[in-house]
Write a structure and sequence with these properties.
5 helices, alpha+beta, eight-stranded antiparallel sheet
Length: 156
């Protein structure tokens, strides 16, 4: 059985050092997709904006700068409050988002309890699936048997 860990929160879209606007968002973690976190931004349009990236990236980004390319995450302090900044880059544009560290950390802690680090592959069932595929069946005996027998005769 798979479970989902969600959290609604308000992020800030940073427009400039002096100006930001609130953006309602939903953090989602699914145990059937154990390596990823999903963030849905409700930006007032017909369709929300969805981002998916490695859970490990967000966990590390709470403590130190990490990531490169499309997703970068780092901790900082704004007006005396601990926040996590997320820089997202896509062909449609760039966004710098600010999230409260305490809320993100509490949600991440719940995801880490649901699937501890290092146990993600167990959730995918890869080992069990491979074992099932590689287990010999009675039909394998027929397939592997030499249909022509040996060239050596028993009586000589």
């Amino acid at each position: 059985m798979h479970s989902v860990v969600e959290r609604e929160l308000e992020l800030k879209l940073v427009l400039s050092p002096e100006r930001s606007i609130p953006v309602p968002a939903r953090l989602t973690y699914r145990t059937d997709d154990p390596y990823a976190v999903h963030i849905t931004f409700h930006i007032g349009s017909e369709h929300p904006v969805n981002w998916t990236f490695a859970r490990e990236l967000l966990v590390e980004g709470v403590f130190r700068p990490c990531g490169h390319g499309d997703v970068r995450v780092w901790p900082t302090t704004v007006d005396g409050h601990a926040v996590v900044l997320m820089a997202l880059t896509s062909p449609d544009g760039d966004a710098l988002l600010e999230a409260p560290t305490a809320q993100v950390s509490a949600w991440l802690e719940r995801t880490l309890r649901a699937v501890p680090p290092g146990s993600e592959s167990e959730q995918l069932g890869i080992d069990a699936g491979l074992a099932e595929l590689l287990t010999p069946t009675p039909a394998d005996d027929l397939y592997l048997r030499d249909p022509w027998g040996s060239d050596e005769s028993d009586g000589q």
